[in-house]
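Worked example (supplementary).
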Amino acid sequence: MNKNNGAGGFFGGASARQILVAVVFVAILGGFFVLNRLITPPDVSQSERRELAKLPELTISTLASGEFMDGFESFASDSFVFRDGLRTVRAASVFGLFLQTDKSGLYLGDSGAGKFERIDAESYRKAADKINKLADSLPGLNLYCAVVPDKSIYSGKYLPGFEPSEAREILSERLDGVKYVDITDALDGGDFYRTDLHWDQTRLDGVCAALYAAMNISPESAMPDGGITTAGGFYGVYAGQLALPVAEDTMSYVTNGYIDGASVSYLNARTGELEPGPMYDAESFSGRDPYDLFLKGVQPLIVIDSPNSRTDRELYMFRDSFSSSLAPLLTSEYRRVTLIDLRYLDSRMLPSLVEFKPGADVLFIYSTQILNNESVLLVG
Amino acid sequence: MLFSSDTFLYYFLPAVLALYFIAPMPRGSTSVRNTVLLLASVVFYAWGGPSYALLMLGQVLSGWGFGLLIDRWRGRRPLARAALIGSIVVGIGGLMFFKYTDFFIENVNSLLGLSVNALKIALPIGISFYTFQILSYDFDLYMGRTQVQRNFFTLATYVTLFPQLIAGPIVRYVDVERELHSRTHTLAEFASGARRFVVGLGKKVLIANVLGELVAIYKSSNENSALFAWMYVAAYSLHIYFDFSGYSDMAIGIGRMFGFKFLENFNYPYIADSITEFWRRWHISLSSWFRDYVYIPLGGNRVTAGRQTFNILVVWFLTGFWHGAGWTFIVWGMFFALMLLVEKFALGKLLKKLPRPVSHIYVLLCVAISWVFFDAPDMASAARTVASMFAGADSLAGRESLYYLRSYAVPLIAAAIGATPLPAAIAARLSRGRRGAAVMTAAEPLFVAVLLVLVTAYLVDGSFNPFIYFRF
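After joint prediction of all chains, the assembly is encoded as:
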């Protein structure tokens, strides 16, 4: 033993406690060090629904710029062995050890898991300005705006997030010639999936009724009789983000004579042509986001023609993902429903793609996540 | 590279520990192991800013070169002093350029109505710390308190030693001079270092970061209630303590694993009964640096009351300015200067007569208010928060403050208890006797394992993770 290793050598004089502490420390550091190299990380995190960071390319240029180091930090975290289990440990610690009521905004309430965030008033105002700009280009149409309330307000907790009255106040004050439709009271906590941010299509009769009332439509029924088909069980986006064991959700969809008789066309972004597709896409249900079952998820432009509708009215919906499940229900009252997602379609493209029919209805309907991040709306 | 990162914990540290302990010590020489530490430290530093690693090594070269000159001219005082001044000019010059240029431009613009563009120079990580270390070496050499280090690589190993490189403690060369050449490595010291490191990591990740979230929530909120302002002040006071003392614990712990014994940097500052005592317990390496290299050379206490006042004002102006290029930091420093002067010349005796809880509340209140200025982006913002704490809030409490009070009650209480010697006292009491020692033999390794896994879970889940003292 080296003379610089103390009088009794490196191991000399160490108590059992010290030996155990050193062994535990080295075993955990060394164990993870080895395991992280032995186990190939997955490309995708199913629970977080995202691609995991990959080992960045090592070059002189990426080293000099620091790009390699930044990329490596993300890789080290994303590729860590037992990542999902460790995320669960953290969540359990947040809620069970520190007794915190949320984890970076993620909470568990009466209506399941959710994430609250405050209204960004400035972003809301800018979003209203964009809506006003679009409204200016749509003379002679009946313009409405609604906000999909965040499910956190129905959580049974006094969460400091979305405030319906604040949303109404900001938008009503800012919107010009666009009627604000409040659908807050048309929903409750049970109308949303327990593990996802979206609402449950089978429970949207109240929302349809509130919209019809505001848009001067007198339906025979807000949700005409038909059937409900179960697509299957799923875990929504909050289940993965929360990383705690939660009960599985069930996704179902509505069918009736109007929906069954409708045809759906999707814009092919490559060809610029509309192509037929399904209203409910079972294949998408088994993909990364089961909610893509409704109108195939992310789509810049969709046209739903409903020959069996009770009126000849047309509706243009400027929308986000929530409308994918809402729009099929409106086929009973509208002959044609056109869905426009400005996150994926620049408004300057609209004149060449959509012919707005005078006297038709236009509904701007967005969730607070979009209104809080108005920059995603491509309004030129 | 952050200590509290997966990269450091599960890539860098295991690799360096393995290389270090595999490296031979021929005839007890630490030179090979020092080389491992030097290379590891350069990689550690370059990880956060490759280009500034050269600047750091250049500053080390300057300090080393001036050190040789100081030694060579030891008998010729004016020349040795010139060499010391040269070292100070290069060291402080670099610090001034990288840290304060834009501050001066901004203020000259304001004063003279000019519109000179700011240079927007990125602050090299840890420059304030390593500059002070280099200066302490040359100053101690000039004062004859230490021997010259002729080997550049040994001096570079001291300055760049990664455990303390970027956020202290400010380790002086004189304190580790012997260990650079000859140090012992024992399992007992390694275990002690490992435990200290893990405790520091826990303080940082499980407490400081969690309270840092509350601080960030307060700053992004529109609620102007007294409760929220007080929660913020309490959270920030505990956040900065656990952040910085946690980092110091990690530095001391890693140093111990490698055979170095760094001096303590914190000693339960929030139990102090006076501001004077607080500064004997908070960031000890910085306050003692200013005491030994500024205050005492200026004359210290052995001068007239007027001169002593001047000395204190200078030291605390510099202490504030060292922390950041902004008026809020200067106000923060001068606030402490004022409090220390008041204690020295007026209230010192009275404080000693007061019941401990009263003097304790006085310290906590003064320190908490000081942190408002320390953390504020500008004076107006600091003034708003202080006003909210006392009379200027819109309400006593609001929806957000009440919600977050409930959500952060346990972390706040745990942190408040953890900032006192109570947990250490309980652990010491539990260890007493044969039975206690047996229990602790199992409990301590278990504690280390649980803490390490918990910290890893927080890191893997990408929690909030800034280090306050990196910006200094």
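Two points are worth noting when inspecting this output. Chain B touches chain A through 70 residues (CB under 8 Å). The CA atoms of residues 112 and 334 of chain B lie 25 Å apart.
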